[in-house]
Amino acid sequence: MNRLVSWPEPVIRVQHLSDSGIQIIPERYVKKPQERPNFVEPVSGKIHIEIPVIDMNDLYSDDKSLRWKTAALVGYACRKWGFFQVVNHGVSQELMARTQEAWREFFKLPMEEKQKLANSPSTYEGYGSRIGVEKGISLDWSDYFFLHYLPSGLRDQNKWPSLPISCRELVGEYCREVVKLGGKLMKILSANLGLREDYFHEAFGGEDMSACMRVNYYPKCPQPDLTLGLSPHSDPGGITLLLPDNDVSGLQVRHADKWVTVKPVSNAFIVNLGDQLQIMSNANYKSVEHRVVVNAEKDRLSLALFYNPRGDILIEPAEQLRTEERHPRLYPPMTFDEYRLYVRTKGLRGKSQVESLINSP
User: Fold this and answer.
1) 3-state secondary structure at position 157
2) Which uninterrupted H or E stretch holds 344?
3) For position 92, what pLDDT does the model report?
4) Beta-carbon neighbour count of residue 248 at 10 Å?
5) H-helix or E-strand spanning residue 300
6) Is residue 323 a contact partner of residue 349, using CB atoms and an 8 Å limit?
7) For residues 124, 130, 132 and 135, what is the CA-based torsion angle, rounded to 10 degrees?
8) Is 349 left (phi over 0), alpha (psi -120 to 50) or beta?
9) Labelling 119: which of 45, 133, 212, 300 has CA 20 to 30 A away?
10) Tens of pLDDT, residues 272-294
11) Residues in CB range of 117: below 8 A, 6 or more apart
């Protein structure tokens, strides 16, 4: 973890830029031509593709053929997409809606109130607007709030917003329920590879696994064709459970060398696999690049919960999924903390960060 206590240059809030009424975005947010989003609509008649949608009730159905069919769909999603949506997942729709609304209220607070929780690069915890600590780097069109939930020793509710009044209570309840959902999914992902149901859960540290949340706020942008809300990347951890903004699409997934816009299903979570699952599955599962585009007319808010291994546990391909001749080990043993340091020091982004480990000593 970077221990810098302050950012290398003054932090500008993207929400402030958006609210100021500017028509031309600052140069720092303009992406290179090859990195800019392409808003051209697909040619009429082409097949429309979307990430798979999994009904979790079907995974526990009394109908064995339906269970197998749904498990096969999960396997397909993990191998070909690295993304899927889940419905009937057990998290209260009311809790989801109230938590989203509380965070919307937070971002509507006066700037001086939000600034009380401004973050630093030492932990990133709190109200932020940038990630990289290099001076002069290209910036994304977004603000965020980052917090730790697990292990409980890292959890500090005094660093969570006290306004709106309900926020802290809702965040705690929401994280608890989404972590439970993450645990259910980990069992399904393990079993689908022929591993013990609890294999991934135990490999992540069991009850000592790590979880954190990032609330993403993407203000409306006068030039959405020139910038991105979040640059292309794959998630370094285990799985990410995203509660999207149902009113405004923005998440795009790289699939077959094209960017596919995810259309959220009502009351669904978008689930994506991170680099650690690609490593532990010996590349049977894929950690896929994704990015976020912004909107000229509307702002957008999403909640991402990261379900990760404990930082000091050694992560490596499952022994059952590798053989010396046909399926050799693709990735070297490495703790999650070591992996994150590797990604930062190499300056890697996107799929290259995990692919670069293949056949490393």
Assistant:
1) helix
2) helix 336-346
3) 97
4) 17
5) strand 300-308
6) no
7) -120
8) beta
9) 300
10) 999 999 999 999 999 999 999 99
11) 126, 127, 145, 159, 161
